[in-house]
Amino acid sequence: MIYPALLDTFIFPVTNIFMGRKFWFIYHQLQKSQWFNREQIEQIQVLKLRKLVAHAYATVPLYRQLMDNKKVRPEEIKTLADIKKLPIVSKKDFRQDFPDRCTSITTSRKDWIFDSTSGSTGSPFQFIRDKQFSDYALANTYRNYTWTGIFIGQRIASLWGFHTSSWGVKILDTLLRRKFFSSFDIEKNFTDYYLAMKSYHPVLIEAYSASITHFAKLLQENDITDLHIPYAISSAETLYPENRKLIEHTLHTQVFDRYGSREVGNVAHECREHKGLHINAETYIVEVVKDKPSDEKGHLVVTNLSNFTMPFIRYDTEDYAIASNKTCACGRGLPLLERVEGRITDFIKLPNGKELSFLFFNYFFEQYGAYLKQFQVIQDSPKHLLIKLVVTEKYTLTKEKELIAGIKKKVGDMNIDVEQVYEIKKETSGKLRPVKRLI
User: Distance between CA atoms of 83 and 89, rounded to whole angstroms?
Assistant: First the structure.
């Protein structure tokens, strides 16, 4: 383990100085603070929250207006519970008069780092981050890597859709020994990917959930059993239990789930106990805001405590999640999310006003594994579903009628059309969305 030790004691500290960054210093802080008790971590959160709210109110027009409208002042935010006094913000708020209205007047424009989401929900979202945001994002990512059991500097394969090729990222990828594979071309380049990974011997693979699942299915279909990657991180999409089993079996690996988004960073990650996702609480305050107290799930609302250029305070991620009050056996004081349920647009809106989870379709189509390779359910109007299917040679019209009848039994008064396609196209991000609500 000479290289990881050299990376820790010399290469990354020097790289930080050369790049004018602090991510390695923050990484070491986070490695210590994860073992603080819950009260100590909450004290860190409160201090950072009060500083951020005061800054946002004084220097960001959006937050001054929203807080004035709600008649709340920064000095009223004294505890974590007081965060509920603040308004919840959405992409719609940030899009209005972007960027001037939602950025700090104290930050020089030359220090702005423009970024954007992929628009996988049909609506790309542009935002601005700063060096501090980037440093905390990197530090959290590196800490989360170690939760799997690896040392920083061991080889990583990244099966990803979007990859920035700036000189800084190239340097970090080289130092981390992280090899990039495009999630857009898995089918086309499957053999090359398999041979490259077998030759590279990565200790960890990180990937979109659908991408690594697809790769695992191709390994299974081609009866390839000699690719061993000890650890895997599934991210960016919902990790279904049966897909976790498939990935672990075909790659001889242990899978860790991660939740994050481009605009706020990596928010939560599984540890080796696999009893929920630990929130990176020194950087984020996470709330699960329910429509009704009796609801199990709620809107995942995130406050990023590190971005002072374009603050995200009580930001509605448009994801659903289930909270957890449990304490993890690993000993970390970081709070837990039980699980993230997926994007709001991954739920079908039924005629009776209720929502049907994408998980229903995932489990429903399991029974048709011999007849289908892939599926996608699209709701394009209140009472219409379009189901796209990539079928096998065993698929018949009789099976199609049976399939439609089974779905109708669940969705009620909705029209269903089936379209056979050669492939389910990925979103511009490289992700696959099995369920899409367009209304």
Answer: 13
Q: Is the pLDDT of residue 89 over 60?
A: yes
For residues 180, 181, 182, 185, the Cα torsion angle rounded to the nearest 10 degrees is 170
Total number of domains in the chain: 2
Q: 274 and 169 in one domain?
A: yes
Cβ neighbours of residue 66 closer than 8 Å, sequence gap 6 or more: 87, 89, 93
Sequence letter at residue 439: I
Statement to judge: residues 267 and 170 lie in one domain? yes
Evaluate whether 191 touches 203 at the Cβ level (below 8 Å).
no
Q: Are residues 127 and 234 in the same domain?
A: yes
Q: Which helix (H) or strand (E) holds 351?
A: none
Number of helices (H), then strands (E), belonging to the chain: the values are 13, 19
Q: pLDDT value at position 118?
A: 59
Could you tell me how many residues make up the chain?
439
pLDDT at 344: 66
Whether 123 has a pLDDT exceeding 70, the answer reads: no
Residue 322 near residue 338 (C-beta atoms within 8 A): yes
If asked whether residues 311 and 425 sit together in one domain, one would say no
Range of the domain at 49: 1-344
Q: Please report the DSSP string for 50-63 in residue order.
A: HHHHHHHHHH-HHH
Same domain? For 38 and 184 the reply is: yes
Residues 311 and 409 in one domain: no
Report the distance separating Cα 273 and Cα 328, nearest Å. 8
